[in-house]
C-alpha cells in the first residue's frame, strides 16, 4: 500500500520515522538490505548483511536504526531534515516493502517584539506606527493582530535565506489612536503560536502645552 505517514517534530528533538517492515525473530538484519532515503536521491542510511554500507555526511552522528523494526531515529532534528523519506527493504534482492514518511519540522519563533512610534500628535488624535517582529522560526509564519480584541491586518514582510532556513517576520500598522488601545501581535506557524500585547495610551500633549 502506498500510504504516506506524516511525522511532526521540533528542532532539537529526537524523532522516529517508522519503516514498513519488521524482521521476524527467526531471522536477522544479515539477510536484508535496508535503505533509508531522503527526497528519493540522498541515502541517509543503508544496511547490507547487517553492516552500514552508506551514511550521508549531513546525518553523521545524528541517526540510528532499530535492527528489528527498522525505525530511523534522527537526533537532534534540524530544519534541513524537513522533507520526504523513504524506507526500502530488500530480502534476497526482492523488495518486500517501500514506504514514504513525511517529516514536518518546526522551530519556535521568538516572542514578538511590539514597538510604537508616534508620528503625529494633537489633542484629539495620536498617529502611531506599530511594529511587530519575531525571528528564528520555521516554517513561514502567519502574523495576525488585534486592537482591543478586534482583528487587524498587519502589513507583513518575511525574510529567509532559503526555503529551509529560519524565518524573520515583521508587521507594520499605521494607527490613529483616539483613546487608550491594547495592541496584540500573534505569530502562528504549523499549529503553534506566540503573541505579545502592548497598551498604548493617548499622549495629551496639547493639554500639557496649554497649562504652560
Protein model, in words:
The structure is a single chain. With 212 residues, the chain is an all-beta fold. It folds into 2 domains: 102 residues, Immunoglobulin-like (Sandwich), CATH 2.60.40; 88 residues, Immunoglobulin-like (Sandwich), CATH 2.60.40.10. Helix content is 3%, strand content 58%. It contains 1 helix and 17 strands. The strands form 4 sheets. The protein has a 6-stranded mixed beta sheet with strand order 1-9-8-3-4-5, with no helix packed on it. It is rod-shaped. The termini are far apart. The model has no long low-confidence stretch (mean pLDDT 91). Keywords: Cell membrane, Disulfide bond, Glycoprotein, Immunoglobulin domain, Membrane, Receptor, Signal, Transmembrane, Transmembrane helix. InterPro entries: CD80_C2-set, Ig-like_dom, Ig-like_dom_sf, Ig-like_fold, Ig_sub, Ig_V-set, T-cell_Activation_Regulation. One of its GO terms (biological process) is immune response. It is found in: Cell membrane. Its main location: membrane.
Amino acid at each position: 500500500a502506498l500510504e504516506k505517514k506524516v511525522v511532526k517534530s521540533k528542532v532539537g528533538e529526537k524523532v522516529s520515522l517508522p519503516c514498513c517492515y519488521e524482521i521476524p525473530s527467526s531471522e536477522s538484519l544479515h539477510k536484508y538490505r535496508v535503505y533509508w532515503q531522503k527526497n528519493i536521491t540522498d541515502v541517509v542510511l543503508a544496511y547490507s548483511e547487517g553492516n552500514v554500507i552508506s551514511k550521508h555526511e549531513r546525518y553523521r552522528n545524528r541517526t540510528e536504526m532499530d535492527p528489528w523494526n527498522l525505525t530511523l531515529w534522527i537526533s537532534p532534528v534540524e530544519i534541513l531534515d524537513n522533507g520526504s523519506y523513504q524506507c526500502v527493504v530488500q530480502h534476497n534482492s526482492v523488495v518486500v516493502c517501500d514506504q514514504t514518511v513525511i517529516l514536518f519540522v518546526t522551530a519556535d519563533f521568538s516572542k514578538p517584539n511590539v514597538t510604537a512610534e508616534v508620528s503625529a500628535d494633537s489633542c484629539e488624535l495620536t498617529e502611531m506606527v506599530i511594529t511587530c517582529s519575531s525571528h528564528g522560526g520555521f516554517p513561514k509564519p502567519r502574523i495576525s493582530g488585534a486592537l482591543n480584541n478586534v482583528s487587524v491586518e498587519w502589513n507583513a514582510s518575511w525574510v529567509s535565506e532559503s526555503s529551509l532556513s529560519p524565518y524573520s517576520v515583521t508587521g507594520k500598522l499605521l494607527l490613529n489612536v483616539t483613546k487608550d488601545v491594547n495592541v496584540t501581535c500573534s505569530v502562528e506557524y504549523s499549529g503553534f503560536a506566540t503573541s505579545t500585547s502592548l497598551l498604548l495610551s493617548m499622549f495629551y500633549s496639547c493639554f500639557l502645552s496649554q497649562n504652560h
